[in-house]
């Protein structure tokens, strides 16, 4: 019997408890799941229009830079998104970037001619334990199908870019959550691509779930193989995974404030047991849907009153809680996957027999 996943923090969730509770944000997946190919692409659209012509304010923070993303330099310089956000595996980053460029040229034929070039934005994690990443199986058509499938209701777990991902030596993947921001009537949503962590470090709502599983679960076996295939529960092999954390909000924030917001994603990540290891690519990006920035200089810039920095604390709390919740949701929604060379990841929901043991506060240790 499975039990409901714990609610993180004290803030209420939106109606979907997903990033799409921020009005206009949609998510789509395309999943490849056959034999040794266990991978996919996930596309996050900040609004229904063309972000090349109507850019979205954004900022990113690199918590640990062991990653191969595309587009971060220009986001840092200009403070806007001008494509949807694509998530995929490491070796598919160039293909997804090319798909974004071709899509932009199709909608804006003068891009790169009389109009500026487009800045594709693609994030990655390494799914090579379950997926034969060398096949580079993803192409333009898969990106476009994920883009076209984007909606307010979407799957989580082992889907899209999350299909081949591992987290805490279990099945990881796509997770999402949202929080209503206290005092301002705003919403903040998070979406993660979770592919990090060692099982004994896994902490959920303050409870040492990973230690419980590693020490007592009779099903713990092939589930406990590291991101590079080595046994790593207590064997000294470093944690080598990654996570991408996306935050969306309808609060009016500028790029500087969004960078501050993105940094708070690290608080939620740390609560789950991450130590931002040497080989981990941990990147957070935040964007606001409160306004757009026009591409053409002939169009007027928006006149928006930004929130005062002194009232950002509720948003910071929402960011930390929503990211922690999204990571937990990625683990909870994932199903077992067997992929390349028979490698397999079990899922948290199957391994954890009951949440009842977690219903009490964590035991205090003696001083």
Automatic annotation (TrEMBL):
Pfam families: Peptidase_S58 (PF03576)
Region (Disordered): 213-236
Molecular function GO labels: aminopeptidase activity
InterPro entries: ArgJ-like_dom_sf, Peptidase_S58_DmpA
Similarity comment: Belongs to the peptidase S58 family.
Protein's UniProt name: P1 family peptidase
Organism: Ramlibacter lithotrophicus
Taxonomic lineage from the root: Bacteria, Pseudomonadati, Pseudomonadota, Betaproteobacteria, Burkholderiales
